[in-house]
Design brief:
The structure is a single chain. By secondary structure, this protein is mainly alpha-helical. The protein has helices at 5-28, 33-51, 54-80, 88-109, 111-121. Helix 1 (5-28) packs antiparallel against helix 2 and helix 2 (33-51) packs across helix 3 (54-80). The longest helix has 27 residues, at 54-80. It starts with a helix and ends in an 8-residue tail after the last helix.
């Protein structure tokens, strides 16, 4: 069984988040120990996702729900404040947050993804088939 496309998209979103955060961190303060630990944790989450870990799926889903909530709240606040000159990039960031977190929740709740992860965690999902 090949890795589902939804899992690949989730991994790409996680890698993009790491890349964007790294660029922003380098522009501000350089790489600090706390940031590096965060990158290592994200990398371990990606590995756990590829191994089919149910715990990792639940953690990622919980973080995506939280991100979806706060991105949605930010978008609502920006819409309320739009008459006062809210920056356009803030809208873009909030919309991207809603879309990406919403997709992660959708992907990780998909029955096919859950079946693949269960099979993978039991040693049954072979990526060469």
């Amino acid at each position: 069984m090949k890795v589902p496309g939804k899992i690949i998209v989730v991994i790409v979103l996680l890698l993009l988040a790491i890349a964007v955060d790294t660029i922003a961190q380098l522009k501000r303060d350089g790489l600090e120990a706390g940031y590096v630990i965060g990158v290592v944790v994200r990398a371990l989450l990606i590995v756990g996702l590829l191994k089919g870990s149910e715990g990792v799926r639940m953690v990622l889903k919980a973080f995506a729900f939280i991100g979806l909530f706060f991105s949605g709240m930010a978008l609502v606040m920006l819409l309320i404040a739009s008459g006062r000159g809210a920056p356009p990039m803030a809208f873009v960031a909030a919309i991207l947050g809603v879309i990406s977190n919403g997709f992660v929740v959708y992907a990780l709740m998909d029955q096919g993804v859950q079946a693949w992860m269960f099979s993978k965690s039991m040693g049954g999902a072979d990526e060469t088939n």
